[in-house]
Each structure stands twice: as C-alpha cells, then as structure tokens.
User: What shape does this take?
Amino acid sequence: MHKTLVKMVSKRRLSKSEDKESLIEDASKTRKQPLSKKTKKSHIANEVEENDSIFVKLLKISGIILKTGENQNQLAVDQIAFQKKLFQTLRRHPSYPKIIEEFVSGLESYIEDEDSFRNCLLPCERLQDEEASMGASYSKSLIKLLLGIDILQPAIIKTLFEKLPEYFFENKNSDEINVPRLIVSQLKWLDRVVDGKDLTAKIMQLISIAPENLQHDIITSLPEILGDSQHTDVGKELSDLLIENTSLTVPILDVLSSLRLDPNFLLKVRQLVMDKLSSIRLEDLPVIIKFILHSITAMDALEVISELREKLDLQHCVLPSRLQASQVKLKSKGRASSSGNQESSDQSCIILLFDVIKSAIRYEKTISEAWIKAIENTASVSEHKVFDLVMLFIIYSTNTQTKKYIERVLRNKIRSGCIQEQLLQSTFSVHYLVLKDMCSSILSLAQSLLHSLDQSIISFGSLLYKYAFKFFDTYCQQEVVGALVTHICSGNEAEVDTALDVLLELVVLNPSAMMMNAVFVKGILDYLDNISPQQIRKLFYVLSTLAFSKQNEASSHIQDDMHLVIRKQLSSTVFKYKLIGIIGAVTMAGIMAADRTESCSLTQERANLSNEQCTQVTSLLQLVHSCSEQSPQASALYYDEFANLIQQEKLDPKALERVGHTICIDFQDAFVVDSCVVPEGDFPFPVKALYGLEEHNTQDGIAINLLPLLFSQDFAKDGVPVTPQESGQKLVSPLCLAPYFRLLRLCVERQHNGNLEEIDGLLDCPIFLTDLEPGEKLESMSAKERAFMCSLLFLTLNWFREIVNAFCQETSPEMKGKVLTRLKHIVELQIILEKYLAVTPDYIPPLGNFDVETLDITPHTVTAISAKIRKKGKIERKQKADGSKTSSSDTISEEKNSECDPTPSHRGQLNKEFTGKEEKTSLLLHNYHAFFRELDIEVFSILHCGLVTKFILDTEMHTENKGSRNIGFSHLQQRSAQEIVHCVFQLVTPMCNHLENIHNYFQCLAAENHGVVDGPGMKVQEYHIMSSCYQRLLQIFHGLFAWSGFSQPENQNLLYSALHVLSSRLKQGEHSQPLEELLSQSFHYLQNFHQSIPSFQCALYLIRLLMVILEKSTASTQNKEKIASLARQFLCRVWPSGDKEKSSISNDQLHALLCIYLEHTDSILKAIEEIAGVGVPELINSPKDVSSSTFPTLTRHTFVVFFRVMMAELEKTVKKIEPGTAADSQQRCPYIWLPQIHEEKLLYWNMAVRDFSILINLIKVFDSHPVLHVCLKYGRLFVEAFLKQCMPLLDFSFRKHREDVLSLLETFQLDTRLLHHLCGHSKIHQDTRLTQHVPLLKKTLELLVCRVKAMLTLNNCREAFWLGNLKNRDLQGEEIKSQNSQESTADESEDDMSSQASKSKATEVSLQKAPESGTDGCILLIVLSWWSRTLPTYVYCQVLLCPFPFPP
Assistant: This one.
C-alpha cells in the first residue's frame, strides 16, 4: 500500500488539481491504517537487533549496532569512518550494484517498526571509549549518515518520501516527537545532493499534498535542503504556490528572502504580494513587509513605498471596540478576556511590524528618504493616513540626519491643512504603544515646532504635548510637564502662551496626573518677571486649580506657596509686582469659589465648609482692595479683574451679595452727584452738565461728577493744599470711573439675571464738564489747560464706551436709541479730541487698560510731513500685509481683531485718500490705542439696527495694535475662539444687510455719474466713509470664513449656518441642502458684489473672501476660473486715484491680486504673454503719467510689481513640468504616447522661453535697480529650471523634433546673452546689491554650456561643438571698453558668423585664448548639419572655471 502511494506520488505531476485531490484521498486512507504496524514481535528492552538481513550485517561491519525498543543506535567508530567503510563495503561487494537494492529493501523492512524508525531518525549514541577521540559532540542519525553516502542517497530519499505520508495527520507520537519534522530535518545541510532536480521535484510534490502545518515546516527548510543551483527552480515553484495558496504566503516569502534569485523575478513576486496586501491577515504582515522592504532598490524605492502606504492602513486592523477595550485595560489594569487577548495579539503584531520597518529604515537610507518623499508628494487631505504620521515619527526618532527634512515636511503639511488634529488624535489612540517608545523624540519635535512663528504649527506642537500626556505613562507625563515649564520660562511670548494653554487643558483633562507633577508647575512662581498679565492669569488658574482641587489635602503646600507669593507681591510699591499680586489673588478667589460650588452637597458638614470658603474668598478680595487703595491704577486693575471674575460666573452668590451692596454705595459716593447742584470751586473752566439724554430737567436728577474730580486730582498731584471741606471727603481718582462702573454693572447684571433697571439712570444722566468745542480759544490755551481738556475728553470717552458696553443688549427701542446716541457722542468727542491732540504733541493721557506690565506707556508720535516716519509706516504696513496672509485664519488674536476691531491693517493707506487735515487727525488717534477702554464684542449686536453709519463700524477705528499686540484686548482674550465666532455668526444677517445697502449706494452713485464712480458731483467724504465701511465688512467676512477652526468636526454646524444665511440671500432654499450646494450659492452671492467695488483694497478682500469659500469646496475648477476672470477684471479696471503724486493702489495689494490672477488662470503662459506683450508695449508708447489702456493698473510706478510677479510665476510654472525621460517609453506605448508627450512638453517650453524672452528684453527700457534685481534673481532660477526640466526632454526629443529643439535653443541663446550683458552692467556700476547675484548666475550659465555639449554627445553630434570668445557689453549692446586686444581679436569670429555657418564642419577655438578678466566670457557656437542645411545656434557662458579646454 505504501509503495503504491509513493509510486503514485513520484510519477504524477502534482500541479494539476485532480491529481492533488486523489493523492490527498490516498493519504487520508493511509491514515486509517495503524501507523505502528509491526511484522516482528516486540524485542526485549536494550537488546541488540539480531537479524540475518544484509542491511543489519553491513551496518554492524561498518560500525553501527542497531538497538531495539526505545534505545538509541550505537556508533562504534567515527562518523566519517563509518560512511567510508560502508561505501567501500557496498562498492566492493560482488553483487554491486544489486546489493544497493537489497540494502535499501532491508532498511525499508526494518523501519516498518515504529520504534526502529524513530531510532534511525534520532542521533546515534557513541560508545564510551570512542567519545574522547571524537572532536565533535554532535552525532548524526543513522538516516543522516546513510544520506551522506552518494550511492545510497537517491534510494534513501525515495524511502523517506514513501514513509512520510504515513505521518501526515499525526504530528507527535507517544514520546512527543514530531516525526514528519524529524524526517524533513534529515535532508538539511547535506554535504552533497546527488540529484538536486529530482529532490526538488519530490519536495514540491510533497508540499502540494501535505497538511498546512507540515507545508510550513517543509517550505521554511528549503534553503537548508537545496543547493544554490536549485534556487531558481524552487523560486518559480514557490511563486506559483503563492498564487494558489495564500495561507502559505508567510513561509514562502520568508524563504524567498533567503534564496539567491534574480532581482527581476523578486520584483514580480513583490508586485504579486503588493496586490494581495489589503487582504492579508495582520499577524502575517511583519514577514510580508520585511520581504517587500528587503527587495527594494534605489531605483524603485519611491514607487514601492508610495504603493505600500496606499494599501497599508493599520488604523482599520484593530477594531474600534478593541481600541476602547485596550485603553480601558491600559488605564485600569482590568480583567483579561478572549477579546482582550485578541487585542493584545493584534497590538503585538503591530509593534512587531513597526520593529521590522524601524530595522529597515535604520540600515537603508534609501527607504527612509523614499518614505518621506512619498508622504511629501501626497497632496490631498483625505489621502493622509495615521500610518503616515507614525512613519514620520519613527524616521524622526531613528535617523538623526533626516530630522530637519521631516520637520520641513511636517511644517508644510500643517500649513496646507493636510495634517489636522483629528488625524493626530487617531494616531495616538491607535498606536500609543508604538509611539510610547519614541516619547523623547516626539517631545523634541514638539519643542522644535513651538519655536515656529506660524500659529498653526505652534498649535500642532502643543497637540503633540497634549496627546503625549494623555496616552503615555507616568514617566512620559513628567517629561511633558518639564518641557512645558521650560517653554514657560523661556521668555518667548508665543511659547509661553502655548505652553500655558496646554497646561490649562491638561489640568482639565487629567487633574490627578497633573497633581503628581504640580511641584514642577509651582517652580514657575520664581520666574514671574518676564510673564505678561494674560499669562499670569493662566498660570494662577492652573496653580489654583491644582491647589484647591478635591485632593486638597495633598496640595496644601501649593496653597501656602501661592498665599506667600500673592501677599509679597501685593505689598510691593512697584506696580509691575502689585499687578501680579492682584491678578493672582482674584484668579485664586475665583477658583476657590468655583471649587466650593462644585463640591457643595446636601450634608450639613459640607454646608459649613462652604461658608468657611466663602469667608476665605471675601477676605482675600478685601485684602486686595486694601492693598490697592493708595494707587488709582492698582484700584482700577482690581476693579477690572473683579469684574472679569463676576462676568465669568466664578464667584459664589453669597460672596457676591456681600460685596455687591458695598460696590453700589461706594460708586454713588465717589462719582454721582445731584444734577441740579453745580459744583463750586476754583475751576479753570466753567462747569456745565452736558450730554444728558433727558429732555426735561428734573430736580432729583443725577450727574457724573467728572471735571471736579479731575481738577481735584490734578491739584493733589501738583502739591496744592486741599481745603478742609475736601479733606474730610475721601478722594477717588476719576481714572477708576469706567472700571468701577464696569464692576457695578456686572454685579447688578449677575444679581438680577441681566436686568439693569437699577442703574439705567446712568445711561442718560449728564456729566459735569465744560464747553469742549475749542473754537478760536484753542491757540490761546496754555499747555496745562490743553492737557487738562485732553484728559477730560479721554475720561469722558471711556465712560461712554463702558456705558455702551453695559446697555448695548437692551431690547426696548427707547434704550436702543439712547445707546446709538451715546455712540454718536463718542464719534463727536473723538473729532474734538483729535483737534486738541494735534496741538498737544507731548501729552500723555490717563490709562484706559490697566493690565499692562508698566505704567510708562507713551503714545506713538506721528508727524505728517516726516518722510522718515512715512517710510517706516510703509515697512510696518508691508509686514502686516505679509503677516495677514498666514495668520488671519489661524491666530486667535488676529481673529479677535477682525471681530472686535474692524480697522484694516492697511488703514494708513486708506487714509492717504483723505485730504489734508482729515488725514492728519485720523492718523492721530491710532497712536492712543492703549488709552481707550475696550469695547465688548456684544456691542456689535447694535448692527442689528436698520442703519449703517460710519460710527457703528468705526467706533474702534483708533485701536490698531502698535507695540504690544495684547493691549486693549484683555477681555476678548479671556474668551475662547468658539465663543467669539459664535457671537460673530449672530451678526452675519445684519452684516449682509449693510453690505447690500452699501452695494446699492455705489450702484446708484455710478448710475448718477454715468458709470464714473468718482464723478464731479460726488461727495468725497461720504464716498470714503462708505468705502471704508465696505472694506471692513469684507474684512470681517474674510476673517470669519478663514477661521481654521472650521476644520474641526464640532464647528461644521457653525459653517453650515453661516453659508445658509448667505445662500438664502440669493434665493430661499431648504434647510437640508448639501454643503457643496451652499458653497456654490454663497460664492455666487458674494461674487455679485464685484460690480460695486469702490476701491482696489475692497477688490482684493472680495477676491480673498471668494478664495476662502472656494477652498472649502471639492468641485472648485469652475469657480477657480471665475476667480481668475474676476481678478483680471479688477486689474483692467480704472480705480479712483489718490494723491496726485502717488497711486491709491498699494504695491503689496497689487502684488497679491496679480499673484491670485496668475495662479488661478487656466493658461499662465498666455496670461503672462498678454500682459508683457500687449500691456507693457501700450505703457511704453504712452505718455509718462498715462497707464496701459488694457491694464490700467499697469503704470511706470507699478511696472516693477508686474515684472516681479510675472518672472516669479513663470519660474514656478516651468519647475512643475516633469522632465521627459527614456522611462516614459517603458511605462507607456512608445509608438503612441511618447511622441505626443514630448511634443506637448516641447510646445509648452517654447511658450515659456518665448515669455521669458519678452520679459528679459524689457530691461532695455525699464532699467531701474528693482527691475534688474528681479531679472538677475529669477533669470538664474529660470535657467536652472531649464537645465533640470528641459534639457532631459531635449535629450530624448532631439532626433524626432530637431527643428523645434533648434528653435528653442536659438531663442534661449539670445536671452542668456542678455543675462551676460546684465552681469557686465552690474560690475561696471559697482552695485553690490546686484553683483551678489552675479556669481551664481555665471555658474548656471557655465553649466548650460556643458549640458548642451552632453546633449550633443548623447545624440552623436559631438563634432558640432564650437567654442569662442564673447565680448562684454552693456544692456544696450554697446561694448564695454575694458577688454584686452587679445579678446577683441578673438571676438572677430562673431562678425564672420555667417561664413562659419556655411561650413559643413564646426571649428573649435581654444580656451587658452579666453580672457583673464573676471567679467569676460566665451561663447559656444553649435553648428548642426542636417542634409544640406546648416543652422547655427548659440549658447554661451562666462569664462569656465576649469583651467583646461573642452575635449575635442
């Protein structure tokens, strides 16, 4: 039966499925037979086998004694001696070769007994007297020894393969010995394989019918069984088996990695595996990835890695339920379960997989570089995976040489929005076990990102800290806190803000873990000197939260330290330190009250504790109040901080009730008097009750006693003795009026649920002032009197601002009207104030915002006629314009400015349009930003009223940030970005109303003036006011929709709501419209405003707003063309002119709009050709002050902007063209695609070179320094792009498209000659700003010569290379008279060019005649002869640096 089966196995081809089935069936029948079938009786234990068979006799003669039972066979001689003896015995036997069959037959009969077979497979036992003489301690088995004899090997192998199927379905016998594995091991490491092909065939046949576990063993043993000559055949068989049986993928790939195979064959196998990658089990991935990575070459690394990262997504390998279970298990160390075990197994596989990848990238630089490049080349946001981020972290931690490269890639990805918070969070949640080992590298990366200037990159770095703390162990958490503390103590404002924000989040996220690291945070108290007030608030909030948390028993030491620091700072006489004490104490009081409220329960004990804490809070506030009484600034700061505490609802109601009554009484005593009793005294001006809103005089009316208080303060300041009547009265500084009222208002609002009836009399009550309109008496006033009037105006304005803050949300029409009247008063007072400030240059106003680091805040002085200041202003505006491109959508502070302060960053440029006095005064209040009270964001709810006027949008017109960015936005900064955006979204509808009203205004204006916007009947001031409102509304919309928070899922509803408002203005639609439809309708709605745009600034903001809407859409091609069309319309429009000397269009704004046009147009080359070929010639042919008729924005003044943008965009465009290579023909059909591709690229390059030629020749007409600078810079970059992108294309296109190539080179030669002339011009004029670009340009031109020669050599035209000398000339082509006569002689060849071109063979001029001067050059003349035609093409360069001539 067994012999029959083996004959069947050996004679059939097992590649056919029916043969396999029959063999498996036979093997299963064999299984039913008893495997221990014996033909002889059992032997006595330890008895020597006594048998008359030739097999036993020959073994005994040769030195092996066979044993029965479970005893090992004994080897009496050395193993080699045995094999030699047996071989000689068989060879010399009379019946040789028949004796071989008898010997093998005896073996077969002997091993039918299971114990005997087992003994033959196990190592032989050496006799004691022989052991010492043997060098090796390892003894081979009998079968192994017999396989080492060549004449026996084929028959023994055949016998083993006949025997093996008996054990297919029984892995281990009674002795726990795996017999099939033992049989396979006999074939390993044979000194010689007699018939390798036959052995290979038998093994592959056996694999096809063996059980899966045995298949694994046989396949993994193949490298140890077969010789190198059989590797190719086995590889092919295994690749076929890989296709048929995917369960054997792992052992097959493991073996293929160990075999010596052809690289092309491995490439096919790798591709086969890559195709199956998505369906492979997680536990098999490590081996498969190892095979793929080890088969990568430098040529195909990028392609393979790109495909690998597309198909490998480990985020879905572990199920979400398992992820949650794993995190619960990680945190609670909970119970193990079957699903938990499976999850642990999956995580182990993933860790093993990344270990394999780490090993590959550690030793193969090619793999790591290709992986980074593959991620870098991924453009779409949706294509970025968790796997990408993990790989970046792994490479960052493994290869130190690539750290800078990875940081650059990450920064670019973050800026473009490709890597967002959701992706980072998923990365940590899925692969926290893998990332935990890279904690130090991740923190190092976060530290590097926090040093950036880009807010989006800083935010990403902060998220790294946050998630590292959340997902890693205690040690890593300690490292995170230590790193954050280091950032806080660094002194860098952005780093400190970010680190404190992260600490705030961590305290909320995991307070118990933060308590363990509280000692590190507490150490910051020693470094408070360099921390801003806003940062002090955050720091004390963190410390107070830790100190007064529920685990307060363990945190009492933090409380003690904080009390010590606060008391020390409050007792200081230096305002900077007193400020720290006030802010810290009030912040701590808020946390104490909040903690008490949260911990309050129904038990009496807790209620008593609550009373105790309430007493602590009030006593702490009283301490602050008593310590700040002597300083008006400190008192005002305390009132503001206390008001913030109440506004944030962090103060206990009982404590509020205790202090509320006192606040109201104190305010009345200090500032409120009867309106019917006019104060008497020696005042410099007559006192009058002004700005009252009540029409009838009432006897019981009240008024604000402002002028007398200010006068009393000035008297005390000047040392004038105070009257006894005054001394008995507590003097209060008028500086505290606005802050104290804010505190009173918020206290009443909180106690009465928003009802302000108790204090609504303050809205319409008058103020004791004097006649404020200066009139003719202004010049006769003394400096002190003017300063007094200025202070009075500042205090009055700040009072009205707080009044508007308080009552802006009142709903009754009467109250709304009064608030609008107060706004009108603000605008009127600002106009009056500007008049006083204009004649009081050294005046320093009273502070309006008190959370400042120093009281020595002085306004910036502006002189309208100072050229130096104007120049500085331009620089500042340019910096702001540049900064707004990136920060407007990302930084919270910029976002806040856009809502709270609609003043544009280009306000100065806008005000240039105003005339004389208006320009001077409107610029003036910009410098007094820090001295006005902050308007709350709720004030903008006034926009719901049905009118739009200058004072509504322009109330904050004088709060443009100069110096510190945070001064004047203290209240706003204490709100989250979500709160601010939510408030602004409530204003979208009224802002749309106002936008449409202004649109209609300009439409009617244009109609009245027959299409001329700035016609003769136009009211200039009204026009500019409306234009300013238009611009600011567009700015607010842009800042709103550019907010980076919309990328977060929780904010999608806000975006949807805003877009629905815009789209509903166009047509009423359903509320359940898809996002794409809303974006399309919103785009169309906003686009309709382009017809009424009054200024270039408005046009730019409208374009930017449309681009922001467009970025959120997936189908943006059509709208992209609309933006290009709109930008072109704006460039071709005649805008209202500003001053006679200057255009109203800023160069920065023109640069931005032109870039937008060229980036969005469908054919950038055609657009450049139109401007340079049509617009510029019109400009050249027109009079001096006239612009181009096609492009009115193109003037002689703005030409340099157009030139710079066109050169830059041209260079950027050609760099994107992929160079044509020979590989194209391998990837595509060489007869169809390649010529077509090359023709298209050649055509594109011809257009690009033509545009470059037009632009470069313009320097002959416009030769100003900025134009020449642009030409040198971008000219070199264009030539470099030509070398890298175009020359490879010419290499493979030369033969088939020689005419196009010749035309291209001929045109380009003329351009490079002009560049050479420009180098000479720069040296003659000794302009260092230009000459610094010359060396790199010369080097690039030299490379061009060498590269053209290489192209000729590649195309077998090396003889067509000719070299000559080139004269130095200026921009107009005139020879520069600094060359030697030798050079002049050599240059005569240029005059005889036509005669040389007629020759059929080119000549070469030796470089030894080249001029020695650094500015001299040489020319390369390429003469290419095709049939009877000879065409000369010139490509030249500067003197080559090499001392030897070109080879012939």
User: Anything to note?
Assistant: The two ends are 83 Å apart (CA to CA). Strands lie at 64-65, 74-75, 125-126, 672-674, 688-690, 702-704, 767-769, 1361-1366, 1417-1426, 1429-1438. The mean pLDDT is 77. The CA atoms of residues 794 and 1421 lie 78 Å apart.
